[in-house]
Amino acid sequence: MKIEKNHVVRFHYTVSEPGQPPVETSKDREPLAVLIGHGNIIPGLENAMLDHVAGDSFEATVESDQAYGERQEGLVQRVPKKHFRETRLQPGQQVVLNSSSGPRAVTVVKVGGTVVDVDLNHPMAGKTLQFQVEIVDVRAAQQVEIDHGHVHGEGGAQH
Ligand code: ZN
Hints:
Blueprint: E1 7-16, E2 24-25, E3 32-35, H1 43-49, E4 57-62, E5 76-80, E6 94-99, E7 102-111, E8 115-119, E9 129-140, H2 143-148
The protein binds zinc ion.
């Protein structure tokens, strides 16, 4: 079965900046499950997956405008330290902050006594990304998954 819109794909990925060591991989956990055609993953990676089948391994280079967008200036915000789970924070460190719109990856800019300045740009904003992808399996989505716009069951929402 080829990957197309309204199919559910489970895959492993490793992502790096070109020529750099990997920044993230799914190899140490369960494969990621996504519903194709519903904005579940960055557009460049989704496009690269189309027409592949289970068992395929491939590389994809995704420009920033098809990944996490350009970096924006003025996205540094001061946040009380108590909002961080981590006890030791360092400039340059990437942490996940619970914001009103859900968890958000941010980069620590400056650490003060009671507050921390963080850059709200996605850590991968403005970057070209190199993906190594292995397609684990592909199936047609259930109607309820298409209605909800996400995967249910293994690797997806449990409801
Ligand atoms: Zn759902």
